[in-house]
């Protein structure tokens, strides 16, 4: 019986995201119809933009790289019960640190310089994760609001850095830093595309996060704190330290994404180095069920969504914002799906017409 | 340029008057969030709700040439957005943080999408304009020295927001409905036993809260008569922080919003006066202030005791 129930839960936890994604694209199709475009035309432009040829496929995987890293970070913090929605800002600060390291040690050979750049990204992002981590752990401040505020601050810091202290004197006034030395640039994996070695770094990070979470004592403590902080404290765990450290690692992973955008895509720091990867990564982490493998799959899906939506806007004039709508719908529909999975259809139906009305004197339970 | 050049009566009055104006959308949103949190539901999707109000306000005014219709549209669609949040958080017992954060993405996507569907994907042509509110000085009150120019030469929604502070304070602390709201946010099980319909009260609070946030969003687009993508710029989150600062009291929300409005006005004036501070640090000011306010107010924060906890009625017994 126990085994049967487990397998039903396992099945649901795979089926619900898949059905939610399909349903979201279906609703997206209805929106496309409302715009007056044939959904078949739109979605074929979409598929072409996402996977249609070597270049598009390479770009999709290149976009998936920061989504995997930020998604892993958010998932790691979420395992420790902190909702880190500031990956965007952590990516930005990571990019500042990485660029500084890359320019400062430009003379080093690549096998030393690239790890240093990635480490710089980890430290910068980690710092930007530690601040809300410690503030939440010590003062109980809502980390959602905190991380959003820190993201806004980080964007302004990058804007200042590329116009002030790190401005390239030879950029003719363009707000950007000098370019990295060739040794600091991540090599391309596929010639003629944007796909670079960063993807392998991201996949390696997924393996490391998996091992850290599920095969080490530290990972066990993180999950214990996330599952029930009070019980973890009774068991003698250092709850404050564990959850701040989890947020630091979370930010650090997003910081590596920033380092990779500098070292693999732009080769320098400039404004808008991320078009919202940190925010898309929230959906990546949620749909991936906070599991490294799920995060990797969801990151590729949402990277394809971005490339595909760009192509849809170019070819059939469907606004690119459809991508955001589909992202959000997948999670909202998964929430409905999870309710149905645990409560069944009959209770769901009861909610819709009169469920709000009935007030019988019954014993109530709070969770 | 030194700070003393700012200290002339004309500049100070202009700075404070702009502060009141900039405080208004945050005030409306935080009054909405306050109501919702008092009932035990944390609406972290406030930013998305505001954005929907921003577009609704713009379209309503653009189609009818009446900013009042725009304001009404922002209020109604904000309420509709609140209903969606309420359904997920209250009826489906969903995690309120997840619902909120995802709703913000939905709000940004929907408004960007619909704006382009209605007005086209334009890159070069001038953005469409809608009728905005004009300042309407209140007779007699406007002649009060200093205060008249700061408070009583504003657009109608500013006065409405100030009156709403008083109304919300009366409703929360002097009416049956307010008592019920505080009861379901304080101890839902006891409220249920007393015959209060926890679900219905929570729905009402979250929908009304969404409507107020939607009105706050509409204020933004109706002030200048334009709509831009993500034009709320984090104001929804600032409003949530203000509710903590306000200790869940409408008068505190007024104080907190004014603090932010004046800080925002100050940074705009400093930019205009060309101070030697990098402008990015001025733009950061509201966000840094939010972090500081959260740290300070967290020490004595006493939120409604079951804030964020879904209420699950035991259906079997």
- Estimate the global geometry of chain B from the Cα principal axes: globular
User: In sequence order, what are the helices and strands of chain A, one letter per element?
Assistant: HHHHHHHHHHHHHE
> Which structural class do you get from the secondary structure elements of chain A?
mainly alpha
> What is the second-level CATH architecture of chain B?
Orthogonal Bundle
Q: How many domains is the backbone of chain A divided into?
A: 2
Tally of distinct domains of chain B: 1
Largest sheet of chain B: none
CATH class of the largest domain in chain A: Mainly Alpha
Radius of gyration of chain A: 22 Å
Strand content of chain B: under 5%
CATH architecture of the largest domain in chain A: Orthogonal Bundle
Specify the biggest β-sheet of chain A.
none
How many helical elements of chain B? 12
* Helix proportion range of chain A: over 70%
CATH class of chain B: Mainly Alpha
Most extensive interface between two protein chains, with residue counts: A-B, 58 and 63 residues
Order of helices and strands of chain B: HHHHHHHHHHHHE
Low-confidence stretches of chain B: none
**What does the oligomeric state look like here?**
heterodimer
Output mean pLDDT of chain A: 89
Describe the structure.
The complex is a heterodimer of chains A (about 375) and B (about 325). With about 375 residues, chain A is mainly α. Chain A has 2 domains: about 1-35 and about 320-340; about 55-315, ABC transporter involved in vitamin B12 uptake, BtuC (Orthogonal Bundle), CATH 1.10.3470. Chain A has helices spanning about 1-35, 40-50, 55-80, 85-105, 110-140, 145-160, 200-215, 215-225, 230-235, 240-265, 275-285, 290-315, 320-350; one strand at about 365. In chain A, helix 2 packs across helix 3 and helix 3 runs antiparallel to helix 10. The longest helix of chain A is centred in the first third of the chain and has 34 residues, at about 1-35. Chain A is globular, with a radius of gyration of 22 Å. Mean pLDDT of chain A is about 90; it is low at about 355-365. With about 325 residues, chain B is mainly alpha-helical. Chain B has a single domain, classed as ABC transporter involved in vitamin B12 uptake, BtuC. Helices cover about 70% and strands about 0% of the residues of chain B. Chain B is built from 12 helices and 1 strand; from the N terminus they run ααααααααααααβ. In chain B, helix 1 (about 10-40) packs parallel to helix 6. The mean pLDDT of chain B is about 90. At the A-B interface, helix 1, helix 6, helix 11, helix 13 and strand 1 of A face helix 4, helix 8, helix 9, helix 10 and helix 12 of B.
């Amino acid at each position: 019986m126990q085994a049967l129930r487990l397998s039903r839960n396992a099945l649901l936890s795979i089926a619900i995201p898949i059905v939610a994604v399909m349903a979201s694209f279906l609703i997206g199709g209805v929106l496309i119809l409302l715009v007056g475009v044939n959904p078949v035309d739109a979605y074929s432009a979409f598929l072409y933009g996402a996977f249609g040829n070597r270049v598009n496929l390479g770009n999709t995987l290149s976009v998936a790289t920061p989504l995997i890293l930020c998604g892993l970070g958010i998932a790691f913090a979420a395992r420790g019960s902190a909702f880190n929605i500031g990956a965007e800002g952590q990516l930005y600060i990571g990019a500042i640190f990485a660029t500084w390291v890359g320019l400062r040690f430009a003379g080093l050979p690549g096998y030393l310089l690239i790890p240093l750049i990635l480490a710089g990204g980890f430290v910068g992002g980690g710092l930007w994760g530690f601040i809300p981590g410690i503030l939440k752990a010590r003062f109980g401040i809502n980390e959602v609001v905190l991380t959003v505020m820190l993201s806004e601050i980080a964007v302004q810091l990058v804007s200042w850095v590329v116009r002030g202290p790190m401005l390239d004197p030879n950029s003719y006034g363009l707000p950007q830093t000098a370019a990295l030395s060739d040794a600091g640039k991540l090599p391309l994996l596929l010639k003629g595309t944007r796909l670079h070695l960063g993807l392998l770094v991201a996949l390696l990070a997924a393996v490391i996060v998996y091992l850290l979470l599920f095969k080490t004592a530290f990972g066990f403590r993180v999950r214990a704190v996330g599952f029930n902080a009070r019980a973890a404290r009774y068991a003698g765990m250092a709850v404050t330290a564990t959850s701040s450290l989890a947020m630091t690692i979370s930010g650090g992973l997003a910081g590596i994404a920033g380092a990779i955008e500098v070292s693999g895509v732009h080769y320098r720091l400039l404004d808008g180095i991320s078009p919202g990867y940190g925010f898309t990564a929230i959906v990546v982490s949620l749909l991936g069920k906070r599991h490294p493998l799920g995060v990797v799959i969801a990151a590729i899906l949402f990277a394809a969504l971005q490339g595909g939506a760009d192509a849809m806007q170019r070819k059939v004039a469907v606004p690119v914002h459809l991508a955001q709508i589909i992202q959000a719908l997948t999670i909202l529909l998964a929430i409905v799906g999870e309710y149905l999975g645990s409560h069944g259809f009959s209770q769901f139906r009861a909610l819709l017409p009169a469920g709000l009305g009935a007030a019988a004197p019954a014993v109530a339970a709070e969770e | 340029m030194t700070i003393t050049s700012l200290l002339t009566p004309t500049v100070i009055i202009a700075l404070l008057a702009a502060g009141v104006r900039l405080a208004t959308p945050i005030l409306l949103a935080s009054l909405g969030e306050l109501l919702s949190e008092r009932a035990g539901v944390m609406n972290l999707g406030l930013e998305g709700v505001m954005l929907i109000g921003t577009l609704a306000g713009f379209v309503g005014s653009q189609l009818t040439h009446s900013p009042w219709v725009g304001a009404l549209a922002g209020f109604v669609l904000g309420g509709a957005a609140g209903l969606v949040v309420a359904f997920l958080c209250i009826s489906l017992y969903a995690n309120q943080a997840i619902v909120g954060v995802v709703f913000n993405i939905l709000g940004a996507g929907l408004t960007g999408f619909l704006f382009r569907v209605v007005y086209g994907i334009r890159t070069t042509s001038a953005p469409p304009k809608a009728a905005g509110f004009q300042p309407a000085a209140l007779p007699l009150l406007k002649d009060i020295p200093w205060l008249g120019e700061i408070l009583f030469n504003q657009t109608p929604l500013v006065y409405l927001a100030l009156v709403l502070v008083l109304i919300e304070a009366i409703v929360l602390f002097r009416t049956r409905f307010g008592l019920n709201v505080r009861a379901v946010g304080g101890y839902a099980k006891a409220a249920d036993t007393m015959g209060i319909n926890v679900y219905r009260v929570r729905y009402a609070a979250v929908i009304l809260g969404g409507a107020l946030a939607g009105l706050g969003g509409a204020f933004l687009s109706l002030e200048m008569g334009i709509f831009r993508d993500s034009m709320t710029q984090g104001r929804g989150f600032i409003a949530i922080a203000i509710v903590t600062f306000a200790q869940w009291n409408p008068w505190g929300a007024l104080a907190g919003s004014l603090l932010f409005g004046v800080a925002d006005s100050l940074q705009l004036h400093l930019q205009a006066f060309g101070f030697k501070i990098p402008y990015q640090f001025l733009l950061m000011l509201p966000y840094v202030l939010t972090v500081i306010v959260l740290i300070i107010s967290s020490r004595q924060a006493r939120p409604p005791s079951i804030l964020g906890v879904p209420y699950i009625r035991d259906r079997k017994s």
